[in-house]
Amino acid sequence: MVMSRPARDNVFGGTYHVMNRGNRKALIFEDNHDRRRFLQILVEASDTYRVKVLGGCQMGNHFHLVVVTPEGNLSEFMDQLQGRFARYSNWRHARVGHVFQGRFRHVCIEHDIHLLTALCYVFMNPVSAGLARNLEDYKWSTYAATAGYAPSPAYLDLEWLEVLFPADSFEESQRRLRQIMGDGKPITAYVQQDECGVGPESIKRVIRSFVGEQSHVAAAPRTYRAALRPSLEELFNERAKDRAATIHEAQVLHGYKLAEIARMLRLHPATVSKILCSFRRSR
User: Fold this and answer.
1) 176 φ, ψ to 5°?
2) Distance spanning both ends of the chain, measured CA to CA
3) According to the model, what pLDDT value does residue 225 have?
4) What are phi and psi of 172, to 5 degrees?
5) d(Cα 60, Cα 65) in Å, to the nearest integer?
6) Does pTM surpass 0.70?
7) 224 compared with 42, residue with greater pLDDT
8) What is the pLDDT of residues 76-115, one digit of tens each?
9) Backbone angles phi, psi at 98, to 5 degrees
C-alpha cells in the first residue's frame, strides 16, 4: 500500500513563508486601525493554533509572514487570520466581497539558509518599496524588534536568531543580524562570515539546525497526542458538558480539525466555526 504524502501546507513542524495581497491589488490596510486589528487577530490565531511567528511585515496591499506550525495546521491558521480580518474590514469600511486575492500563497522553507533568505526578503520589503529609508524605521515590520532597535512583542518567536547567529549573548546575535542586514548582499555576508567560528564549513554542518529541529521536535508530541487523546465520542458523550466549550477543547487541546468535529456532531463545518468563534468572544 502506498502512503500518501502530507499536504505541503500541513506539515507538522513545517516552516513557511506565507503571503497574500488585496483583491485586484487593492489596499488591505487603509490606516493604522486596520494594521493594529490585523496584528490583534494574528496574535489570537497564533495562540489558538500554536503557530510560532518568526517575522512579518504589513505593506499596503499585501502582507508577509514567516511561521512555524508545530501542529501541522497552516491552512486552519491562515483561514482564521484572513477570514476574521476580511469580516472586520468589510464591516469597518462598509463593503462586501473579497478582501484578499484568493487563497494565501506559501513557500515551504527547507533549510536555514532558505529561512534567512525569506526573512531578509520580508524585512527589506518596506525599503525596497520606498516606504522607509532604513529597515528599522518601518513600524509595521518585525525587523526593529528582531534586531534590537525596539522591544520584542510577546507573540514574536526569536529562537531562530540565536540558532542562526550563535553568540555569547542574545544582544550579540542581534548585532550580527544588524551587521549582515547592512550589507548589500546579506545572505552572501552571512555565509562568508568567520565571526564566532561560524564560517562556510560550520554553516554547512548546521544548515538544518533550526528548520530541521522544528520538524523533529513536532513528531513526538503529535504521536503521543494522537495515542492518548480521548475520542470525539468520549468528549461529547457527557450531556452536562457545554457543547461550545467541548468544541473548543477538542480543537485547541486535542488537535481535532473542524471538519472532524463537524462530522461527529452532524453539522456543517461553517456552523461549528461560528459556535467556536462565539465561544471565544464570550470568554
Assistant:
1) -65, -35
2) 46
3) 53
4) -70, -35
5) 14
6) yes
7) 42
8) 999 999 999 999 999 998 888 899 988 899 989 888 888 9
9) -80, 135
- Output the pLDDT for position 135: 95
Give the cell for residue 225.
497526542
Amino acid, single-letter form, for residue 104: F
Amino acid identity at 177: L
Q: Tell me the three-class secondary structure of 4-36, residue by residue.
A: CCCCCCCCCCEEEEEEEEEHHHCCCCCCHHHHH
Q: How many CB atoms lie within 10 A of CB 31?
A: 10
DSSP for the chain?
-PPPPPPTT--TTEEEEEEEEBGGG--S--SHHHHHHHHHHHHHHHHHTT-EEEEEEE-SSEEEEEEEETTS-HHHHHHHHHHHHHHHHHHHTT--S-SBSSSPEEEE--SHHHHHHHHHHHHHHHHHTTS-SSGGG-TTBSHHHHHTSSPPPTTB--HHHHHHS--SSHHHHHHHHHHHHTSSSHHHHHHH--GGG--HHHHHHTTTTTHHHHHHHHHHHHHHHHHHSPPHHHHH--TTS-HHHHHHIIIIIT---HHHHHHHHT--HHHHHHHHHHHHHH-
For 110, phi and psi rounded to 5 degrees? -95, -30
Residue 98: all three cell numbers together: 473579497
List Cβ neighbours of 239 (8 Å cut-off, separation of 6 or more): none
- ∠ CA 154-158-163, rounded to 5°: 160
The set of long-range contacts for 163-166, using a CB threshold of 8 Å and a minimum separation of 24, is: 163/112, 163/206, 163/209, 163/210, 163/213, 164/112, 164/115, 164/116, 164/190, 164/209, 164/210, 165/198, 166/196, 166/198
